[in-house]
Amino acid sequence: MDTADRGERIVVLAHGQFPERAKTAVGVLKYADSEVVAVVDRDTAGTVAADHRADLPAVPIVESMAAAPDADQLLIGVAPIGGGFDESWRPDVRTAIERECDVVAGLHYVLSEDEEFVALADEHGVELRDVRTPDPDLGVAEGRSAEVDADVLLTVGTDCSVGKMTVALELVAAARDRGVDACFVPTGQTGIMIAGWGNPIDRVVADFAAGAVEEMLREVGDDHDLLVVEGQGSIVHPAYSAVTCGILHGAMPDALVLCHAAGRAAVHGYESVSLPPVAAYVDLYESLAAPVHETEVVAGALNTGGIDAEGEARAAVADYADALGAPAADVVRFGADAIVDAVVGGE
Amino acid sequence: MDTADRGERIVVLAHGQFPERAKTAVGVLKYADSEVVAVVDRDTAGTVAADHRADLPAVPIVESMAAAPDADQLLIGVAPIGGGFDESWRPDVRTAIERECDVVAGLHYVLSEDEEFVALADEHGVELRDVRTPDPDLGVAEGRSAEVDADVLLTVGTDCSVGKMTVALELVAAARDRGVDACFVPTGQTGIMIAGWGNPIDRVVADFAAGAVEEMLREVGDDHDLLVVEGQGSIVHPAYSAVTCGILHGAMPDALVLCHAAGRAAVHGYESVSLPPVAAYVDLYESLAAPVHETEVVAGALNTGGIDAEGEARAAVADYADALGAPAADVVRFGADAIVDAVVGGE
Questions:
Q1: Average pLDDT, chain A
Q2: Which structural domain, as residue segments, surrounds residue A107?
Q3: By the 8 A CB rule, do B328 and B301 touch?
């Protein structure tokens, strides 16, 4: 497993898609421990990231890698549909390697199999890191994640795309603000790019899904007080529940935060499958986890992005908390305090 | 996906491990649709399979492939610890290829990457088939398994190694005895070797686990009346639950048979993890499946292999049926009738 050097200087490539369709670039700008020194986007060059979204820092946007300041790493912060490599990016990647930057990508297209890049990277002594490719040394879980000397929190969901990664990242940031040594444990491609390390559990052989989570927890667990594991999918998802279940048992979490999107009634992309009531999710996650490691839904995170009126959004959060029987928040809209109180309130 | 030609003549290699440690060889002898014309085992050569186990046919055992009758396929029916290839088998594999037999194996060692075998197979126009290697064209589930024109039954378990494959195979055989067109759907290496086709769900990328099950059901579903899907692991297994969950949601079964081993109190190999009560498994499997496809535990299968006295074994089966609130049987010891009645009784 790669654990990135903290304090690296990063350039993020986001041609043509910044910020709306550059989820990875935005995530890295908001949450990465490393310093982002520039965004490369030919469409918005000359502006700064904060011009486009108030929650982003004033990082300059430049038209090409050639125009970027000194850096240690170029990170591909966009993922075109299909995961291909856009040939218009080739000069930027070439320049990065020639300037002795490592190149990090999460594409289906494997940079470390591109003949030109491999030869150039060899010549300049830099690394081409494809984060979609799982560690080849993974194995089955030993059921030992609970031995780590840290509290383990897992964000679980009622569905895909309800904000489990964002909630985990916001909880880590909020816990750190309170002086808690919290660590984000990524399980998906975007989270891995943001954190600079991690196993993409969705790409791991099914037998090793829990083991790949356990490996991460045991690697970083003793160095922190709180591990916030990024959940994936949903335990009742027609396609992705295997990943969810492997993470639940592999992480052996002490507490769960149940993430949901306000108004979501059916599984995203599987509209014939209705979501069960929130209370049913609480029962399912807790009873499924318990034989391996007792856990509890201690809070809820509601994504109210689809609700314009603030009063309505607050009412939706209150209703969600009632349904859960636990505190809830929209961590992006209203902050993570209510959840952090439930998680680390006593510390 | 490979669907084997029925009616092939098969030679099964089982050097030094027949029958006790040759699970695949025994399974193929008992359950395969193809005809086994010989077992290759230098230790028991000169006897017949029925001499060693009363439930096996009188297939001759020969000392080498060179001594075997005409065949279409050599199947490696033993799996040494670690999954390696025993070099003492090389002459048998070489002879098989020279005799224009396909060679089928489920080893970690990949036959189709062995230079000598590849060259020889090319020369003789035969196939080297490694069943551990998943189909490269798998994708995510579409949630459409329930559309197949067949009843779908899934064997689920309280743990690993409780007999889910054997129960599925026995149920198929018993249903066929009653005139039901039943089909075994394999999900693991041994089941795949026995059936001659299938996806090894434990080796599939976690995101595609459910999809790999769905692909099988949609391929064979409309050709049969009853599909009996081989389950894997357990939904509360510390390492393998991802595979179990992917199969549960990918298969969208109409009915479940809960398999258990009498006396098993903790997860095999994870002795600190106690098995929940049987009724808890029923709740978990049913409530986890329901949002995707409603299902019900209609019967139980108890492996009483660890109980010597027949009266005690019958009592254990009766207790298990009581705990389940459903009919139960030890399908190997007492036959599958009680379960088949519950599954296809009305047909």
A1: 94
A2: 9-130
A3: yes
